[in-house]
Design a protein that fits this description.
The complex is a heterodimer of chains A (648) and B (153). Helices cover 43% and strands 14% of the residues of chain A. Chain A is built from 28 helices and 18 strands. In chain A, the strands form 5 sheets. A 5-stranded mixed β-sheet of chain A has the order 2-1-3-4-5. Chain A has a 5-stranded mixed β-sheet with strand order 11-10-14-12-13. In chain A, strands 8-7-6-9 form a 4-stranded parallel β-sheet, with helices on both faces. Chain B has 2 domains: 43 residues, no CATH class; 96 residues, Glutaredoxin (3-Layer(aba) Sandwich), CATH 3.40.30.10. The N and C termini of chain B lie far apart (63 Å). The chains are: A alpha/beta (648), B alpha+beta (153). The interface between A and B is large, with 63 and 52 residues. The complex binds flavin mononucleotide (FMN) and FE2/S2 (inorganic) cluster. The site of flavin mononucleotide has 24 residues of chain A, from strand 9 and helix 23.
Chain lengths: 648, 153
């Protein structure tokens, strides 16, 4: 009935074409933003990472200082550029100067910049990090080692536009792809995505075009599009960053998808811990609706699509498609057998397309620039770029986007700046709880969906944690198994009990209670869990153990047969000890640093640790002045007795 | 309202009361016409929901991969030691509650804790003391600790 009405109306009313509609929106946006070309603009990154580092204080300082001096300028809140190590980050664009980026800005530097740069005209190059555009004065990010590898297909606008103002997105040709798509036959749009061979960025790499095609062909009037923003990997934050920094890109991608498959409703499934992301997305949806880019008759066309947020209540397994859909239906998030695929029978039993946040982000640029453009980057089997969250023992942690096929070594050494503090690289954990730990010799593997599988790891969500010589591989395997055994929904026996059993064994090992025979049990359990689990949570849960067993067997052996943790990291196998030879009797910092008062002064004036009380918090080791470096760690425990015996 | 509104409804209740009172769960089951066991199941399945009232100050320690490897466990232990409660518990005076969360998105500041929605970076045991002191953890607690230490010697 409604549909008939709509069609009749469309026939009678002379609506402007999508193209005209869009042109109007865009020129209004551009006109509204013209002011930004005339006054200095101060962009402050206030995504979660920026706020955590103190960006709000910096923002307020800029505002206050500018007010005080009566300087006309715009202070703009933007998302994250991916240089998390440099937060709080500020970009100042002043007419007559290149846009300059300043890292680790605090109140003092903010005042300094207002005084010297904004009030006078000295850009303070000594504090600048990079310029945004090529110029004759200062290097740009492209001149950074990471600039050589980075290629931004979807992160390009993150950190530059104000995510809370749709005009910024529109002015940068946002929603132009949607406008183009709406004027093209939907099947043709779909074919472009297929031709691009866009593979899902949520982990498994399933071709998005095929999924959409299935949903398009599935019978039924009502279809749904869902964006998976659950991001359950405990070491990843790419999706959150995109949702916070450029929400409209995700919305645009989803609308285009809905147009292709003929869906009229969609959901953004975002975990409720991501308060900032939910908040910004809500505002973005509101603005898109106001502008006629979302809702009824988008851009004046006959196509209507409604989009809302579903806040997820937090369970790793709900990232899995069938579990996600069940949780949206008010049930516990427990995975189901497939087929039927979601594309045939998903939310409320209707055909449903579920894609990751990043997958949707690639859609608008592909529609705008064509499948060829996309396929020219990356590898033939995995075209395009990959987005990673780099963290752990790495000099420049943050969010990076590199072409598929970049090697892990390039990513870690060149893009991430390598392992800091002169420590030795040990391993890289990729793919979170479903991925694995790869050693030095595997670093030349190109990053794409298929190569990583061969090494026993997985692309997964894109979380990359670099580990150095101080990190214990058994401990990290135990960490992930603890995670999966807690998150297992309990449906499959092998997953529920098997992961718990594996966790117990690993726990024994790091406590020095393991036996060599248990390693075989671990391997067997791993195989059984892989076969006996329904969903990929169980099927991939053993990966962290299998890869560490494969590449770091020596560490397992040391824990078991020597009761020694080679990384000096497992508390049960390591003791802290103050070397009498090195201890200066005159200094007391270790005593002050100890949270449990375990350090005391011996009768001879030297400091010593009461092992009964010590909680192995590392405080004294960090506190002891580098000149003395008297606090050391010993493993196995028996070394302590040796030392004590010797030093008596 | 229907079955599919269950999670949003629970979320709204938790937003209002800070937790899910048992009485509320029963009403939800009645109103939505779903078995009470399903409501209870959902309330316990998802990590976001809690069945006991939170403290005045909520402390969430990040146990994401990066934070864990950078000493998140030590931070969590320190909070437990100082507050004398475990994860998921609230101090008897209702002042503090302690939770663990996974990756809050600022791994470069690891280990982190979220205290009343503000991210605290590099949470060492000393920093834990600082945080708790600034939130007014009563000096009594500290004295108790010193007494027990004195006795131990
Ligand atoms: C245990 C488990 C957790 C998952 N978590 C996520 C997640 O947090 N985000 C996500 O996009 N996909 C996740 N996935 C993958 C989804 O099931 C699904 O493959 C994906 O959302 C499809 O989108 P894509 O084709 O764009 O990758 C998870 C899968 C499993 C088995
Ligand atoms: S692991 Fe703690 S913030 Fe990412």
């Amino acid at each position: 009935m409604r549909r008939e009405n709509r069609e009749r109306e469309a026939g009678v009313m002379a609506v402007p074409s999508a193209e005209k509609f869009y042109a109007m929106l865009r020129s209004a946006a551009v006109a509204g933003l013209r002011i930004l070309d005339e006054v200095p603009v101060i962009r402050i990154g206030t995504a979660t990472c920026g706020i955590a580092a103190g960006a709000l204080l910096v923002r307020d300082t800029f505002r206050d200082e500018l007010n005080k001096r009566g300087i006309e300028a715009r202070v703009m809140e933007v998302g994250c550029m991916g240089h998390c190590y440099a937060e709080p980050m500020v970009i100042i664009t002043k007419p007559g100067f290149p846009s300059l980026c300043y890292n680790n800005v605090d109140e003092e530097l903010a005042i300094h910049l207002v005084d010297d740069f904004l009030a006078r005209g000295d850009p303070c190059y000594e504090f600048a990090m990079a310029a945004l555009e090529p110029n004759d004065f200062f290097p740009t990010f492209q001149d950074f080692p990471r600039g050589i590898y980075e290629e931004k297909m979807i992160l390009g606008d993150c950190g530059l536009i104000d995510p809370q103002e749709i005009d910024h997105f529109l002015a940068r040709d946002g929603y132009l792809a949607l406008c183009k798509a709406l004027q093209t036959e939907s099947n043709q749009v779909l074919q472009e995505i297929k031709k691009a061979n866009l593979r899902g960025r949520g982990g498994a790499g399933f071709p998005a075009g095929e999924k959409w095609d299935m949903a398009r062909k599935a019978p039924g009037e009502i279809k749904f599009v869902i964006c998976n923003g659950d991001e359950g990997d405990p070491g990843a934050f790419m999706d959150r960053n995109i949702l916070e920094s450029n929400p409209h890109l995700v919305i645009e991608g989803m609308i285009i998808c809905a147009y292709c498959v003929g869906a009229s409703r969609g959901f953004l499934y975002i975990r409720s811990e991501y308060r900032q992301a939910v908040c910004r997305m809500e505002r973005a949806l509101e603005q898109a609706r106001e502008k006629g880019l979302l809702g009824e008759r988008i851009l004046g066309s006959n196509f209507s699509f409604n989009l809302e947020i579903f806040t997820a209540a937090g369970a790793f397994v709900c990232g899995e498609g069938t579990a996600l859909v069940k949780s949206m239906e008010g049930k516990m998030g427990i995975p189901e057998h497939r087929p039927p695929e979601l594309a045939e029978s998903g939310y409320l039993g209707k055909p449903t397309v579920l894609n990751n946040v990043k997958t949707f982000c690639y859609v608008p640029p592909i529609i705008l620039r064509g499948a060829r453009w996309f396929r020219d980057v990356g590898t033939p089997e995995s075209p395009g770029t990959a987005v990673f969250a780099l963290a752990g023992k790495i000099s420049a942690p943050g969010l990076v986007e590199v072409p598929m096929g970049t090697t892990l070594r390039q990513l870690i050494d060149d893009v991430g700046g390598g392992v800091p503090h002169g420590k030795r690289f040990k391993a890289v954990q990729i793919g979170g709880p479903s991925g694995g730990c790869l050693p030095e010799q595997a670093l030349d593997i190109p990053i794409d969906f298929d190569s990583l599988l061969g090494a026993g790891a997985m692309m997964g969500s894109g979380g990359i944690i670099v580990l150095d010589e101080d990190d214990c591989m058994v401990r990290i395997a135990r960490f992930f198994l603890n995670f999966t055994q807690e998150e297992s929904c309990g449906k499959c026996t092998f997953c529920r009990l098997g992961t718990r059993h594996m966790f117990r064994i690993l726990d024994d090992i790091i406590r020095g209670k393991g036996e060599m025979g248990q390693l075989e049990t671990l391997r067997r359990l791993a195989e059984d869990i892989k076969i006996g689990s329904l969903c990929n949570l169980g099927k991939t849960a053993p990966n962290p153990v299998l890869t560490t067993l494969r590449y770091f067997f020596d560490e397992y052996r040391a824990h078991i047969s020597e009761k020694r943790c080679p990384a000096l990291s497992c508390p049960e196998l390591t003791v802290y000890f103050i070397e009498p030879k090195r201890c200066s009797k005159l200094c007391n910092v270790c005593i002050g640093s100890c949270p449990v008062e375990a350090i005391f002064t011996r009768d001879d004036g030297l400091k010593a640790i009461d092992q009964e009380k010590c909680v192995k918090c590392d405080n004294c080791l960090k506190a002891c002045p580098p000149d003395y470096s008297a606090v050391i760690k010993l493993s196995p425990l028996s070394l302590l007795d040796e030392r004590l015996g010797k030093n008596k | 309202m229907q079955e599919k509104d269950l999670i949003p409804v629970l979320e709204r209740i938790q937003k209002k009361y800070g937790y899910l009172p048992l009485q509320a769960l029963k009403s939800v089951a009645r109103e939505l016409g779903v078995p009470a066991v399903q409501v209870y199941g959902a309330a316990t399945f998802f990590k976001q929901f809690r069945l006991n009232p939170p403290g005045k100050y909520q402390i969430e320690v990040c146990m994401g991969t990066a934070c864990y490897m950078a000493g998140g466990q030590v931070a969590l232990d320190s909070f437990e030691r100082r507050l004398k409660i475990g994860v998921g518990e609230t101090t008897p005076d209702g002042e503090f509650s302690l939770e663990r969360v996974a990756c809050v998105g600022c791994c470069n500041l690891a280990p982190v804790a979220v205290v009343d929605n503000v991210v605290e970076k590099n949470v060492t045991p000393t920093r834990v003391d600082g945080i708790l002191l600034s939130l007014g953890l009563s000096e009594e607690n500290k004295e108790n600790k010193e007494n027990s230490n004195a006795q131990g010697k």
